Amino acid sequence: MQGDGRERREAGEGRESSSGTDGPRPLRVLADGTGIEIVDQRLLPHRLAWVALCDVEAVAAAIGEMWLRGAPLIGAAAAFGLALALRRDAGDAGLAAAVDCLAATRPTAVNLAWALQRVRRQVQPLQPARRAAAAWREAGRIAAEDVAANAAIGEHGLALLRDIAARRGGPVRVLTHCNAGWLATLGWGTATAPIYKAQAAGLPLMVWVDETRPRNQGASLTAWELGRAGVAHRVIADNAGGLLMRRGEVDLVIVGCDRVAANGDVCNKIGTYLKALAAHDNGVPFYVAMPLSTLDLALADGDAIPIEERSARELTHIAGRSAGGEVVEVCLVPEGTPAANPAFDVTPARLVSGLITERGVVPADGAALRELGRRAAAARSDEAARPGEAARPDEAVRPGQAARPGEVA
Questions:
Q1: Which of 19, 186, 214, 382 places its Cα 20 to 30 Å from the Cα of 238?
Q2: DSSP characters over 341-354
């Protein structure tokens, strides 16, 4: 990898990128247009810093090594990475090599392959001299559409929260797993979008945040997000959720997803399946926030979803801040202990109360998803016929003003 991936680590430190209308963003286009800049999520929650990615190798490393993560953000970043690669080699061989390089970084989240193929279809018919600029525009559209989709998911999820609030007193108690917040997307988050919408509407909430071992995305990232936004929350051990549900202290579960198969099976961060089982056993609604970019109608069921196996070291070691303020890594197991680290699991559709999409809440079943896919395809065709009404490509990624009061402290 070239040096571009580390040169601007301190750029923008202490300030998220924001559109000024709907909160912070973890990705922005560099002012000179030479690349993108992302929040380095490996450093959170102890330090907020940005890193510039100015070539395809840097983007691939950032995805594979989890400088950035979250299915929608991975897809958008890969789209920009492909555009950067085409600036260097826009021939057919260069296009194919860049797609292969980026697609190999993480196999489970379908947004990665979806975004790469979308850009590829857009540029393949063009002359090489026109491909890089067209790819950059398409990446911007992918980013802008993600923000709009997540905002709509937030509105549909808010209706669920309002319904619960109307039936019981006190704050609505939501349990979430991993980080499906704005750090994982281009804005709003998926599972957190209803939470941020509810906060803006003045609806009292309390969020149970699973720590989400082994990388602790809940404890490190979701808790960081919610704390800065002023949302009431408590971090819990991964195995505490069942007890809380049994005690009646959880009103609903909302999680994100990395891929949803044609029958409604949901692939998400490891540990999601156990939460769904506990929710089912205790009569707690279990909802999945699913942008349409995460739906994979080509896979019949969840058994066909590739499950990423990550390094054993992520499980055997952990980083944290010492009493002296230094971030250090420590070993948790006897030296030489072998470990297995599957990064995702699959929740059967029968355990899912509903899928919260940008087009509404739908059942997790094949018929509903096929109809959803059909309507989405028809809408895309209509939008293609009215190019003047498309979302502005740079809306989701440009450097912006401060976030809206109340959304980020």
A1: 186
A2: -B-EEEE-GGG-SE
Q: Give the chain's count of helices (H) and strands (E).
A: 12, 18
| 8 Å CB contact between 120 and 95 | yes
Cα three-residue angle 186-274-233, rounded to 5 degrees? 55
What average pLDDT values come out for the chain (409 residues) when binned by 10 residues? 47 42 81 96 95 97 96 96 97 97 93 96 97 97 97 98 93 98 97 97 97 97 97 98 98 97 98 98 98 95 96 95 93 96 98 97 96 84 56 44 27
Closest Cα to residue 114, out of 242, 260, 218? 260
Active site residues: 258
Cα angle value 91/97/99 (rounded, 5°): 105
In 3D space, the residue among 196, 207, 352, 154 whose CA is nearest the CA of residue 272 turns out to be 352
Please tell me whether the peptide bond between 363 and the residue prior to it is cis, using omega within 30 degrees of 0: no
Name the DSSP class of 30. Answer: -
Please work out, in degrees rounded to the nearest 5, the angle formed at the alpha carbon of residue 23 by the alpha carbons of 11 and 6.
20
CA–centroid distance for 25 within its chain:
12
Q: How far apart are CA 235 and CA 264, in angstroms?
A: 29
Q: Which residue blocks in 287-343 are alpha helix, DSSP H?
A: 313-316
Q: Which candidate, 207, 263, 258, places its Cα nearest to that of 231? A: 207
